[in-house]
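#onboarding

Welcome to the new folks! Below is a worked example of what a typical request in this channel looks like: someone posts a single protein sequence, and someone else replies with the predicted structure as tokens. Don't worry about understanding the tokens yet, we'll cover that in week two.

Example request:
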Amino acid sequence: EVQLVESGGGLVQAGGSLRLSCAASGFPFDDTAIGWFRQAPGKEREGVSCSTGRDGSTVYGDSVKGRATMSRDNAKSTVYLEMNSLRPEDTAIYYCAADSCEAPEYWGQGTQVTVSS
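Example response:
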């Protein structure tokens, strides 16, 4: 059974930083694309970042480029998303998703990030 469990969300002041974690299991982590997506109330889901797997490449959404860093620890089957210079518009539920950067099949339950102004 595939499981993706996010943690690390919470309330952050604008300009602050956060680090999200996603612990994965149930699939070959090293070879699998895994990424972060987010959805704010009333808005469409947005890709934040995605690591394509064994080739190590990572892509970022335009709205977070330069402020976000995604990393993966294959030994722990965990990915991380660090974001700094947070803005109120970064407020959303952040989801970890796996198996594809374009149309992931597997999703975590999400973690709420709220950035106060």
